[in-house]
Design a protein that fits this description.
The complex is a heterodimer of chains A (381) and B (369). By secondary structure, chain A is of the alpha/beta class. Chain A is 19% helix and 29% strand. In chain A, strands 5-4-1-8-13-10-14 form a seven-stranded mixed beta sheet, sandwiched between helices. In chain A, strands 16-19-22-25-28-31 form a six-stranded parallel beta sheet, with no helix packed on it. Chain A has a five-stranded parallel beta sheet with strand order 17-20-23-26-29, with no helix packed on it. In chain A, a hairpin with a 5-residue loop joins β11 and β12. The longest helix of chain A has 13 residues. Chain A is globular, with a radius of gyration of 22 Å. Chain B contains nine helices and 29 strands. In chain B, a hairpin with a 2-residue loop joins β9 and β10. The radius of gyration of chain B is 21 Å and the shape is globular. The chains are: A alpha/beta (381), B alpha/beta (369). At the A-B interface, β16, β17 and β18 of A face α9, β14, β15 and β16 of B.
């Protein structure tokens, strides 16, 4: 029987309530990012660039846009005969059906899918993180350590460590303790929510976890602590580079602004491991005769007559004469009419800022919901 | 929708006045407007009109074209039923003789269930609704309908075929030598039945008078019912370096751009997954078209910039066209220049061409002081 060495399972069912109107009609992984991407493009491109050709995407909340975006996976070369991308929503079975209760439950309910490929290893990923990573290097490490589970970790400033799930390790990288948001962190190694499991081991622990009615069936809360308790070999794999969980409107805005920094660690311009995005066949961008553009990113289909500074402009956006867009993220097909002013704001897709209207105050972030027609000044979020 | 039509694109186009851009490629795959290739327009026009069967007849130098077209996915032409066919992309002696190319591939025509044909070249750049013309063609009962446009006679259409029209019928066809104020230029889009095309090919072969089907139609307008359809939109013709430059500069006009890119449907092209274009501090951009993936620190004015171009600080790119992956060094000055792909201009270099006859720098050149 044909089998795969490793397959990836991408958790993409989260609602992302803290992103407010950005996830009103959209799952968090499908939120647009960086002008031409959606957040999940990063994980799927990482898979493609790491030669992982079998990817299950676990969806639950508002999957319409996400499903349409992923399609048959052609964008990431994931349209394959054996393998490829598969969207895995919760389903009914003989004994009824349930929503995915937690991250581990989502994988448990799709054991059949994984068994079909009979892989040696399962890579569990979050669909809502922004980073570039070669998972092969992590797999090499996993094999070298002869681990049951390897968890990718990133060093965070110790004063921020209490916001993360922290891994406490021995010198050789073996994890002896996992603390979720510790008050007094012992280390600064934060879990990135990226796991490689030996499938046989994971299967065993998923089944054990299901037997426990008090469990919330979550990797971080239940499965990893149980594995540690039962003496399984868990190792931490240190990742160096850019990584961001865009959980809130603030961090979403920051991650976008990070792309504009001169010393941004997330290099979108090197040609080897590209981030792939769906192509919408739009004309190239046009920058008008009196436009002023500085320190910004603009994509296909945009028309700019006004002033754009420190901003990310997504596809199909129109910026009229004498309009000013500063420190902002403008999502696709939004229209900033002549003389309008947009300061430190996130303007949702298809929104319209009418002539001469001012949005934002330049201090706190103002979020304009998708398709909103803004006729009067909105100075506060 | 043109369900009963097959599209046939002939790429043995006259390259004699555009050599510098066709050293490595046919006219059809010359990059244009930053992110497109010339053939994208005719292909997208066909697909947007509902044609699902397209045969492309190409001669030498087809690597770039075949790479661009691939399986036809961007145009939705990667099909089980019908789809895309590329013929003779290694045949060497096809120049001006498309009948030869057809001769070896008659089975393509016999096998298809489609009964009618749209025959076209690639060099006429327009966004046209072919459905309307097909309806007109079928209503009139003509053997052949040729699409034309009444144009002011400028250099762009030199050497193009000119139609002599009387009461909606073609009574003679000549070559444009630049005489006369307005001319009816043939847009090289022909509507005919498949049967007519097959008979025309046979006659060309047997009588040996004509070596191309278009030529056969032009020469026999009096023997057949050849009618015309007038196109009123924007038309550009890529038949020389200066016409290429003219069409590109026309594209900076927003009305022309909107029409060409979206009037009767979008223009599709191969995706390169380029990141967004990054404009850095100190850059200055006016009236320009920029494709994605570029990094711009210098000045760009009245220009068209392709994908993944790097323009360093202090550089000035004015009235120029830069193809993808070029690198323009610090304090370089370019005016009226066309840089083919992968050109590197080292720091402080100055290149100035004429606004009618721009300088073309060949693909992959490195220009230094």
């Amino acid at each position: 029987m044909r089998k795969k060495e490793i397959i990836a399972m991408v958790l993409a069912g989260g609602q992302g309530t803290r992103l407010k109107s950005l996830t009103k009609n959209n799952a968090k992984p499908a939120v647009p990012f960086g002008g031409k991407y959606r957040i999940i493009d990063f994980v799927l491109s990482n898979c493609a660039n790491s030669d992982i050709d079998t990817v299950g995407v676990l969806t639950q909340y508002q999957p319409l846009i996400l499903n349409a975006h992923i399609g048959i996976g052609m964008t990431w070369d994931l349209d394959r005969k054996f393998g490829g991308v598969r969207i895995l929503p919760p389903y009914q079975h003989e004994a009824g059906g349930n929503w995915y209760k937690g991250t581990a439950d989502a994988i448990y309910q799709n054991m059949n899918y994984i068994d079909y490929y009979n892989p040696e290893y399962v890579l569990v990923l979050s669909g809502d993180h922004i980073y570039k990573m070669d998972y092969n290097l992590m797999l090499d490490y996993h094999k070298e350590k002869n681990a049951d589970c390897t968890i990718a970790v990133i060093e965070v400033p110790i004063e921020e460590a209490s916001r993360f799930g922290i891994m406490n390790t021995h010198e050789d990288g073996r994890i002896y303790e996992f603390e979720e948001k510790p008050k007094k962190p012992k280390s600064n190694l934060a879990s990135m929510g990226i796991y490689i499991f030996n499938w046989n081991k994971l299967k065993h622990f998923l089944k054990e976890d299901q037997k426990d009615p008090t469990s919330s069936n979550d990797f971080g809360k239940n499965v990893i602590p149980r594995m540690l308790k039962e003496g399984a070999k868990l190792y931490a794999y240190k990742f160096e580079g850019y990584w961001k969980d865009v959980g809130t409107v603030e961090s979403y805005w920051e991650a976008n602004m990070d792309l504009l920094k001169e010393d941004c660690q997330l290099d979108l311009y090197e040609g080897v491991s590209k981030i792939y995005a769906v192509d919408y066949s739009l004309p190239p961008q046009y920058i008008g005769p009196e436009a002023a553009v500085e320190n910004s990113m603009i994509v296909d289909g945009c028309t700019v007559y006004g002033e754009v500074r420190n901003s990310i402009i997504s596809r199909g956006v129109f910026i009229g004469k004498n309009a000013v867009v500063k420190d902002s993220v403008i999502l696709q097909d939004a229209k900033i009419e002549d003389g309008a002013v947009v300061l430190k704001s996130i303007v949702g897709n298809g929104a319209r800022i009418r002539e001469g209207v001012t949005v934002g105050n330049g201090k706190e972030i103002v979020l304009i919901p998708e398709k909103k027609d803004v006729k009067e000044n909105i100075l506060e979020g | 929708m043109l369900r009963d039509y097959m599209g046939v694109i002939l790429l043995n186009e006259d390259e004699s006045n555009i050599r510098s851009l066709t050293l490595n490629r046919p006219i059809a795959s010359i990059p244009i407007f930053g992110r497109y290739r010339v053939i994208d327009f005719v292909l997208s026009n066909m697909v947007n009109s509902g044609i699902t069967n397209v045969g492309i007849f190409v001669e030498r130098n087809s690597r770039s074209l075949v790479d661009h077209i691939g399986t036809g996915k961007p145009w939705d032409l990667n099909r089980k039923i019908d789809g895309l066919f590329i013929f003779n992309h290694t045949l060497k002696r096809l120049v001006q003789e498309d009948v030869n190319a057809f001769k070896y591939n008659m089975e393509y025509f016999f096998r298809s269930k489609k009964e009618k044909v749209v025959l076209s070249r690639s060099r006429m750049i327009c966004n046209i609704n072919l459905e309307e013309i097909a309806q007109e063609h079928e209503r009139s009962g003509a053997d052949v309908t040729i699409v034309y446009k009444k144009v002011n006679n400028d250099e762009m259409f030199l050497n193009c075929e000119v139609l002599n029209i009387e009461n909606g019928k073609v009574i003679g066809v000549g070559k444009n030598l630049g005489m006369g104020d307005t001319i009816n230029v043939s847009m090289e889009i022909f509507f005919m039945s498949k049967e007519f095309l097959i008979q025309a090919i046979y006659k060309c072969m047997q009588e040996g008078i004509c070596s191309s089907v278009m030529e056969y139609v032009y020469k026999h307008v009096r023997n057949h019912d050849v009618r015309v359809y007038e196109f009123k939109g924007y038309l550009g013709c890529i038949n020389s370096v200066s016409s290429y430059y003219k069409v590109s500069m026309d594209f900076l006009n927003q009305d022309v751009m909107q029409e060409l890119c979206s009037k009767n449907g979008n223009i599709y092209t191969k995706s390169y997954d380029s990141p967004p274009t990054k404009y850095l501090n100190g850059c200055s951009i006016t009236n320009s078209i920029i494709a994605s993936g570029s990094i711009i620190k210098g000045l760009v004015s009245n220009s068209i910039i392709g994908r993944r171009v790097i323009i360093e600080e202090g550089a000035e790119v004015i009235d120029s066209i830069v193809f993808s992956r070029c690198i323009i060094g610090k304090n370089v000055k370019l005016k009226n220049v066309i840089l083919d792909k992968n050109v590197i201009i080292e720091d402080d270099k100055v290149l100035i061409g004429d606004n009618k006859y721009p300088i073309v720098i060949e693909k992959g050149s490195r220009i230094h002081l």
